[in-house]
Amino acid sequence: DDAGRVAGHMQVEEFPEDMRKWIDPLVDPCNNFFDFACGHWAETEGGDIADDVTSNALQWDIMDKQIEDAMKVLLLEGEGPAADLYRSCMKEATPSDSAKVIEPWLDVVDTVVDNVTFATAVTAINNADMNMLFNWYVDIDSWNQSRYAFFVRPVSSTISKAVLKDGQSKWAKKHLGYFHDFIVALSTLAGYDEDTAEQDAKNVISVETQLAFGQNGTGEGYDQWVDRDYMQIEMPSMDWDAWFDAIGFGTVGLEPDPNATDVDDYGQPFDIPRLIMSQGDYPATIEDIMSCKGTGGEQLDNSTCWSRIRSFMRFKMLHYYATYIDKDFVDAVHDWNSKRFGVKTDKKRWRKCYDDTTQLLGWAASHLWIEGTFPKERKKATRDMLDAIREEFRISLTRTRWMDPSSQKAGQEKLDAMFFEVAYPDEWPESVFRNDGQLKTDGIYAQNVDIVGLNAVARARVRINETPLRSRWGESYPIVVNAFYSPSVNGLWVPAGIIQKPFYSENFTAARNYGALGTICGHEMTHGFDDTGHLRDKTGKEADWWDPKTFEEFDARANCLESEYSRFGKEDPRFDGKHVDGEYTLGENIADEGGMKFAYNAYRRTLPDQGRLSMADHRLFFTAFAQNWCEVNRKSAIFDSLANDEHSPGKYRVLGVLTNFAPF
Fold first, then answer.
1. In the β-sheet with 134-140, what is the strand arrangement from edge to edge?
2. Coil, strand or helix at 441
3. Which residues, in sequence order, are CB contacts of 244 under 8 Å at separation 6+?
4. Which residues 6+ apart lie within 8 Å of 289 measured at CB?
5. In this predicted structure, what is the pLDDT of residue 488?
6. CA nearest 384: which of 422, 426, 425?
7. Where do the H-state alpha helices sit in 267-326?
8. Residue 5: its pLDDT value, please?
9. Cα dihedral angle (629, 635, 641, 647), rounded to 10 degrees?
10. I want to staple 78 with a disulfide (CB 3.0 to 4.6 A). Which of 74, 163, 232, 661 is the partner?
11. Alpha helix positions (H), 31-114
């Protein structure tokens, strides 16, 4: 053991201390490079999983903490809407403050006795950026990327649909019991008596169950282009013309003039924004609820019907505000989450306020952080890295023998057309400054949250008639610790949040920067050519832009990778016989493989002597890559990842890629 330890240390003695200390030198890197790169961390700090989380991730946790530490100071001492919101949050609300916020909304709910009063109440709620039986928002048009559209989606279930649909098993009954107690707690805190709180719980579970069963056939990505007549036919209990007018979207989904000439490629006039709904059964379910049908389709009397709907509305309002008002409500949410997730979720106040601020005002918070801490030269350095990786990708396409020349050329054109948004936008969006001067540091926190919501709705009314930027950041922003590729616009984003230690530094060697950040950049670039990306051309449109034989060759290689990754996990006793789903994780696995190849080749071109790596640089590059994915998970998180995460577990992201990469 001593000889092995000495030999292991000699292999990494030239590594930076912050990398070397996490390595387990007793593990043979040729047998298990993941355990070699991450082993000491996993046995020490990584293995100490806090009560309020289900996993630790070495590099990502470090970066999150660095941003948090800097942001805590900036939010306490800085200026602007993000700082104002954070400081108002740090001043905890009193029960009197809570009453000022929630009682007017509870009064609105109490007015609901029929379809007319329901529509009036829902309109007021929607205008305040809250939702009830359905969600709505403005986003890029699914049919035309050069315009915005109005989307109507089913409301998300408050608890797992699996719990609601099962209902009878011991597991489902346990979670329904937790949910029941949570509803009762919120109603009681709001001042309702025990009988009303119990009736609320019964009614809410009934409506939630009805909604869960009524979302059959509803799937993300399955859009249908409809008009208002369709909505009125599907859900006649609501006056949809009046609703659209009342929320300020009076032209959405109108019947177009057949003689209109200013239309898009699909015949939709530009002055009538497209109305898009998810496919599925949910419109009929919403209509059943509004027309007083119960979970079994039975007709309810008016009193029972509207009491049931009021209970649901009351709960939705209380649940929305619960984390923004006084401590008793916040504790009720934490108690419920602790029970259903099996972890303690009682956040410190600063953490809760930090999370709220960066979620509600992500752009304003990002602007504060960029201007206060981020070295601007990293923007160009990362762009240069991306250009170098793209060039290696282009060269690789010319050497890919299973692609015919026309497909190789089309692939190069797609790479050339791919745009990069790095660190932060050259021009900051209006959302950075939208709430300037409107939030009160010494005001009631929930009232500031209301102002943010009202301004978001006002902005949506303007946005729907604008032309979207192809390079818009969507729901992400520069402070995010991640990178992503959008197939619909053929663009790649690398936020400033990930361009920092331990992924990148001006003081790191190229081996470390390319092994860590470079492989992630290459990963995102490869998504343009993965199992779904290869179905879209250089503009982001779905098209047959490859030769049929090339498509066949791609599928054959993808099937091979799928089979390989599906074998991973079977040897690990923690997986209880389960394994990676190679089909479900295929796109991410392809991206991991490509990211390694192109980042490695780009790194070699930074070296003298025809790109020859010293053994020390070789080890450093691959170890930097491996430490990207050091993670330790609770057993429940392992199973959740296998079932729901499109990425393979960190261990197999490392072992799978390196097993297939000849230079390793």
1. 134-140, 148-154, 274-278, 223-226
2. coil
3. 228, 250, 252, 253
4. 133, 207, 210, 211, 309
5. 87
6. 422
7. 282-290, 302-322
8. 54
9. 20
10. 74
11. 33-43, 58-77, 81-90, 95-110
Q: What is the mean pLDDT of the chain?
A: 92
Q: Give pLDDT, residue 389.
A: 98
Look at residue 325 in the predicted model and tell me its pLDDT: 96
SS3 at position 556: helix
Rounded to the nearest 10°, the torsion over CA 366, 369, 372, 376 is -70
DSSP 8-state assignment for residue 37: H
Q: Output the 3-class SS for 622-653.
A: HHHHHHCCCEEECHHHHHHHHHHCCCCCHHHH
3-state secondary structure of 269: strand
Residues in the chain, pLDDT under 50:
218, 220-221
Q: What's residue 616's pLDDT?
A: 85
Angle at 466 between CA 462 and CA 470, to 5 degrees: 130
Helix, strand, coil: what percent of the chain each, to 5? 55, 5, 35
Longest dimension (CA), the chain: 86
- Which amino acid is present at 153? R
- Inter-residue long-range contacts of 431-436, CB under 8 Å, 24+ positions, other chains counted: 431/363, 431/364, 431/459, 432/363, 432/364, 432/366, 432/367, 433/81, 433/364, 434/81, 434/364, 434/459, 435/81, 435/84, 435/85, 435/361, 435/364, 436/80, 436/81
pLDDT in the model for residue 610: 59
Rounded to 5 degrees, φ, ψ at 473 are -85, -5
Cβ–Cβ under 8 Å, residues 286 and 155:
no
Q: What order do you get walking across the sheet with 491-495 strand by strand?
A: 419-423, 491-495, 484-486
Cis peptide before 502 (omega within 30 of 0): yes
Query: Do the Cβ atoms of 323 and 352 come closer than 8 Å?
Result: yes
478, 376 contact by CB (below 8 A): no
Strands (E) located in 479-553: 484-486, 491-495
Q: Please enumerate in sequence order all residues whose Cβ is within 8 A of that of 467, keeping only pairs 6 or more positions apart, or say none.
A: 146, 147
Helix (H) or strand (E) holding 197: helix 194-213
Beta-carbon count within 10 A of 400 CB: 14
Q: What is the pLDDT of residue 574?
A: 85
In 305-432, which ranges are E strands? 419-423
DSSP state of 344: -
The span from the CA of 34 to the CA of 468, in Å, is: 43
d(CA 414, CA 528): 8
Q: How far apart are CA 377 and CA 505, in angstroms?
A: 11
